[in-house]
Design brief:
The chain has 443 residues and is mainly β. It is built from 3 helices and 42 strands. The chain starts with a helix and ends with a strand.
Length: 443
């Protein structure tokens, strides 16, 4: 009896193996991967369409990745994969059949639309997607609208308008104007030979080398912008902004995130709040408006205007005039070639290394604060008219000051208003404090 049982078992196993072999053989280009949620079944996509340089291409897609690459000028080639995971293997074939790329061709234009099964099938699928690479002709007008998938476009030319919902976006080495719009995912653009408008809602922006003007915006994510040949406008919300090497003008707006703005060739405007601002190496007029964050400004080749509240201001090396308004924070100013006006409240003022270079123009220095000291350090060769007024504080001066043609000892005078002259009185110095000591020092 035992040999008979073994023989029958062998026949059963051989027959079962034959059925399994036949099932795999009949699947052709379909592949199955056993997963936790069921079988993952894939099917290849290969489509070739007529194309030409300068045509219009529109991609309407969802649930899958899109890669865009250069191709031949007379063809459009698509290579991709359908993928579906279902527990009920009985609906797999029908599900794959209803997953398709719908092609709509018109003269000079093609639309490629992704279609998926109706809801009764979707409810039985754990996940499904169509991802593909499309190779396109040169100088096309390309429009892409995707949701739930990555977009990667490289090494092509034309005009580009690309939108995504949930997924990262990458644009690299594009020749032509570019519009990128994303909602949830990081966005990267590098080597764009044209103007660029790039926005994101909940993700970072990383933009490098734009040969044209740039407009960039992200509401909830960091923004990095480097090497822009044209004018630049950057708008943030709740993330840090880092901008550098901008040849044109720069307009930077942010809140609740730091701003670093370095090496700008044109006029620069920065507005921020609740985070620090650093502006450095600007070759034109510069304006900074912020609050609740320190403002640090260095090496400006032009006039400077700063407004701050509830935070310190630090300024060094200004080749022009400097006008500073702040409150509840110290103001430290060093090396200004032109006029210096600093208005503060409840914060100290320290100004050094000004009125050094001889000039035909009369320069004005006006310093005003309350409840904190004023310290002005000037060269020993100073020549200026001086007015100084303080209440509930002392005025100390290292220079001989002539008041009504008389040399007055101003080593320490309190609660007075003094008008006098140092040297021939060429420049003008106005010092005023309330509940503050004032020091006019010689270095």
């Amino acid at each position: 009896m035992k040999p008979i049982k073994v023989f029958l078992l062998t026949i059963v196993l051989l027959f079962t193996g034959f059925l399994v072999h036949e099932a795999f053989a009949s699947s052709k280009d379909k592949q199955k991967d056993k997963g936790f949620f069921g079988n993952a079944v894939t099917e290849e996509i290969n489509i070739t369409l007529a194309g030409k340089s300068g045509m219009e291409i529109r991609l309407e897609h969802s649930f899958g990745d899109i890669d865009i690459r250069p191709g031949e000028n007379n063809t459009i080639y698509i290579k991709g994969e359908k993928r579906v995971t279902v527990k009920d293997s009985g609906i797999t074939e029908e599900f794959l059949k209803q997953m398709e790329l719908e092609i709509i061709e018109r003269p000079g234009k093609v639309t490629i639309k992704t279609n998926y099964p109706d809801d009764k099938y979707k409810e039985k699928a754990k996940n499904f997607s169509i991802s593909y690479t499309i190779k396109i002709p040169s100088d096309v007008q390309l429009s892409v609208n995707n949701s739930f998938g990555k977009i990667d476009i490289r090494d092509v030319s034309g005009e580009f308008t690309i939108s995504n919902g949930f997924g990262s976006m990458t644009a690299y080495n594009l020749k032509g104007n570019l519009q990128l719009n994303n909602k949830f995912g990081s966005t990267t653009a590098e080597i764009i030979m044209g103007n660029a408008e790039i926005s994101n809602e909940h993700g970072s922006l990383d933009i490098n080398q734009v040969d044209g003007d740039l407009r960039a915006q992200s509401k909830f994510g960091s923004i990095k912008v480097h090497t822009i040949s044209g004018d630049t406008i950057v708008s943030g919300g709740h993330g840090a902004i880092d901008c550098s090497k901008i040849s044109g003008s720069a307009e930077i707006t942010n809140s609740f995130g730091s701003v670093d703005c370095i090496d700008i060739g044109g006029k620069t405007f920065v507005r921020n709040s609740h985070a620090p601002v650093t502006v450095k190496d600007i070759r034109d007029e510069t304006s900074v408006i912020t609050s609740f964050g320190k403002a640090s400004i260095y090496n400006i080749k032009g006039n400077l205007m700063v407004e701050n509240q509830h935070a310190a201001v630090e300024v060094e090396v200004i080749h022009g005039n400097a006008e500073i308004n702040t409150s509840f924070g110290s103001a430290n100013i060093d090396q200004v070639d032109g006029d210096v006006v600093v208005i503060n409240q409840h914060g100290s003022i320290t100004v050094t290394n000004i009125l050094q270079t001889p000039t035909d123009k009369r320069r004005r220095v006006r310093l005003n604060t309350s409840f904190s000291p004023i310290k002005l350090s000037v060269p020993g060769t100073l020549s200026a008219e001086v007015s100084a007024q303080t209440s509930q504080g002392n005025f100390k001066c290292d220079f001989p000051l002539y008041v009504n043609m008389q040399n007055v000892d101003l080593s320490s005078i309190s609660d007075q208003k003094i008008f006098g002259k140092i040297g021939d009185g060429k420049d003008l110095i106005e010092l005023e404090g309330s509940h503050a000591n004032i020091y006019l020092e010689k270095y």
